User: Fold Deoxyribonuclease TATDN1 from Ananas comosus.
Amino acid sequence: MSSSAIKLIDIAANLADGMFKGIYNGKQCHVADIPAVLARAWSAGVDRIIVTGGSLEESKEALAIAETDGRLFCTVGVHPTRCKEFEESGDPEGHFQALLSLAKEGIEKGKVVAIGECGLDYDRLHFCPSETQKRYFEKQFELAEAVKLPMFLHMRAAAEDFCEIVARNKKRFTAGVAHSFTGSSEDRDRLLLFDNMFIGINGCSLKTIENLEVLRGIPIKRMMIETDSPYCEIRNTHAGIQYVKSVWPSKKKEKYEHDSPVKGRNEPCFVRQVLEVVAGCKGISDLDGLSKTLYHNTCRVFFPQDLDTAAEALLESGAVPNTQNC
Assistant:
């Protein structure tokens, strides 16, 4: 798949997930294949990938994966559905200190670029009660403040409590992205009131006509794109599929082939499809200009030291008007 001039950053890839080891529902179906997955991403125009950490152990694995390639980076944090691990450790403060130590190690290696994935998820309270989620969501702002990193955030069916906690801690973190956004127009507008908050879009954000209407109201200058792979693919039943142009023939996991994506398993190369849906939905014809704006949004938050100053000046001057103000 030729990438032309498109340059993309996938801000959310769960490369530590068992599916990338060939394991589905506890069964080994094919060999581990992260190198093949990454090769497809690079050839599709993906320039960098942020590997998601959702627990202390997963954050350690995310850092180890990130160290295998100069284009890989990661987050360190605890997902809301896993926040019971603080208390189950028997030493919540010790658990916090272990996260802090890991974050500092990863920063020194040039790999950890955000604290997260953290936030609130009231759709899955069977994994962790809301009070525990809120306690340790707030606690992780201490991590961001201590290491001066942005936050990689999760908000599901919890906008009111989420925004209240963010507002209370807004001076403790540099910037953030509410990733895999599936909320209402009211939720969107609440997030956009925070001037240091971006919204992450993936296949889960593009399922319904209502989702696309919400997307149209997100300014491009406040947006990032992602896959959240191996989850959140854009399916044929999704409203956004009408705008997808790039396709990769896939194989069922039982008939795995090294050179093909696995059917039903999302992977970073498909972030290009998210770009295409955003463009189609917003009526943007200049895919290259759109990708530049999204790329620089992402660099401003996660890679400020690597901003291309010439392109930055171009964007600041409003030279890409058909994407900057959509």
Summary: The CA atoms of residues 3 and 45 lie 5 Å apart. The first helix runs from residue 34 to 43. The two ends are 28 Å apart (CA to CA).
